[in-house]
Structure formats: C-alpha cells, structure tokens
Design goal:
Radius of gyration: 13 Å
Strand content: over 45%
Structural class: mainly beta
Distance between the termini: 40 Å
Number of strands: 11
C-alpha cells in the first residue's frame, strides 16, 4: 500500500526551528519528485518547496527562500523540510506529496499523485 506519512510538526515560538519528515512506504522515493505544500485556515494550498530525483534540483517559494531547506535521504526513504527562523505566517498544515518520474519538480498541487495526511505547524509566542 502506497503511503506518505508526515511528522515533526508542533508549536514553536517565532524565530524557532522545526524539521518535518515525509516517510514513504510501499514505494521507493528515489523515483519520485517530492513537494511540500501548506494550507492555512481560509487560504488555498500553496507550494512551499520541492525536490527532483537524480540531480535533486530544488524549488522554494519566495516566502520561505533562505529559511527552509528541502533534502532527501533515499536510504531512509524520507524527505525532510528544515524550517528555520519561523514566522507566525508559516502557521499551517503542511503536506508532502509525490509524483513519479524525473524532470523538474513542481509547486502545483494538481501535478502530484500521492499525498500524506498533513502535520500541523503553529508558530506563536
């Protein structure tokens, strides 16, 4: 059974850090482009970051550039999103998603086939 499971969310103060993990089961992440998305209450889901296969090219939304880092550990079949210098506006449910195949990754949610259940990130003092 193909499954993605996010973990690592929680409550953190502004300026703090969290590392989200997206663990895959039932398929090999080596062959999938992975995206991280977030959705805040009353807002549309937005692409935060993504990473391709192979050369592992990456993409970051302007709002997180310089603060977030995406990486993949194929041995653990897991993709990470390191989030530093968190701001209250980063508060959202964060989802990882997977799309089979090579090529550039995308920040468009409708291009991904598999989704995790999401993990809540709350940035507040």
């Amino acid at each position: 059974q193909v499954q993605l499971v996010e973990s690592g969310g929680g409550l953190v103060q502004p300026g703090g850090s969290l590392r989200l993990a997206c663990a895959a089961s039932g398929f090999n992440l080596d062959y999938y482009r992975i995206g991280w998305f977030r959705q805040a209450p009353g807002k549309e889901r937005e692409g935060v970051s993504c990473i391709s296969t192979g050369l592992r090219t990456t993409y970051y939304a302007d709002s997180v550039k310089g603060r977030f880092t995406i990486s993949r550990d194929n041995a653990k079949n897991t993709v990470y999103l390191q989030m530093n210098t968190l701001k209250p506006e980063d508060t959202a449910v964060y989802y990882c998603a997977a799309r089979f195949g090579g090529g550039r990754c995308s920040d468009r949610a409708n291009e991904y086939n598999y989704w995790g259940q999401g993990t809540q990130v709350t940035v507040s003092s």
